[in-house]
Amino acid sequence: MFTDSDCEPRADWVEQMLKPFADPRVMGAKGTYITRQSELLARLVQVEFEDKYARMRRQGTIDFVDTYAAAYRRDIFVRLEGFNEIFPTASVEDIELSFRLSERKARLVFAPQAQVLHTHPVSLKRYLARKARYGYWRALVYLWHPRKISGDSHTDPMLKTQFVLVGLVGVSTLAGLLNPYWLGLTLLVMGLLVATTLPFAIRANRRDSEVAWIVPPVHTIRAIVQAGALGVGLLVHGFLRRNHKLRIEDDGQ
């Protein structure tokens, strides 16, 4: 069982984390964040997680377990040699293990009552820095597990569309340096990018109406930062991977 150093498990956390393992087919389980924070950005982060949790509740099997509230059967965890230690900082090593487990048909499940209290970012700078770090290292995970590029049980499916639009904004902006006509396309695509944040804003409004108002600007900036970090990560890790400086050990399966 795992939790993170910035988390405070509730009194029944161990009990709730163990419940799914009554089913011998279950190899891993994922719990949830809760928070007592009143700051607006922290509330946005909590709503983001609750939106992911709502999606996971509809899935009998998931492919994404975070270490802030995680449990695995010891035998399979040891067999796969646990978390990959190539990452220089805590980032996506838990995601990478989840993908390895799911690719081996290990059943991972959602345990929503296994809750840990967490302090979310309250400043936009810290929020975006975390998104950039995850995006950069997620690129390496995608190079190892390319089938997961199409999506996973945790990530908002709209994010892929946003990344494509961010790329189009970049291309049209560069083209606009040669021909001002393309700058009009940049504005159009930016408008579409902002529009993609509205479905989540509507869902957020059901939980916290004040949070809903900051979703479009914050998520637009988030998409740009994450897409940029992912792009840089794909270039950097892709180059290193070709030169065999980064690799993942596999058990041959």
Number of helices: 9
* Largest sheet geometry: 4 strands, mixed
Determine the N-to-C terminus distance: 25 Å
- The secondary structure category is alpha+beta
Give the C-alpha Rg. Answer: 19 Å
Walk me through the structure.
There is one protein chain. This protein is α+β, with helices and mostly antiparallel strands and about 250 residues long. The protein has one domain (about 5-240). Helices cover about 55% and strands about 10% of the residues. It contains nine helices and four strands, in the order βαβαβααβααααα. It has helices at about 15-20, 40-55, 75-80, 95-105, 125-145, 160-175, 180-195, 200-205, 210-240, and strands at about 5-10, 25-35, 70, 105-120. A four-stranded mixed beta sheet has the order 1-4-2-3, sandwiched between helices. Residues about 245-253 have low confidence and may be disordered.
What is the topology?
Layout: E1 7-9, H1 13-18, E2 26-34, H2 40-57, E3 70-72, H3 74-79, H4 93-103, E4 107-118, H5 124-144, H6 158-176, H7 181-195, H8 198-207, H9 209-242
Parallel strand pairs: 2-4
Antiparallel strand pairs: 1-4, 2-3
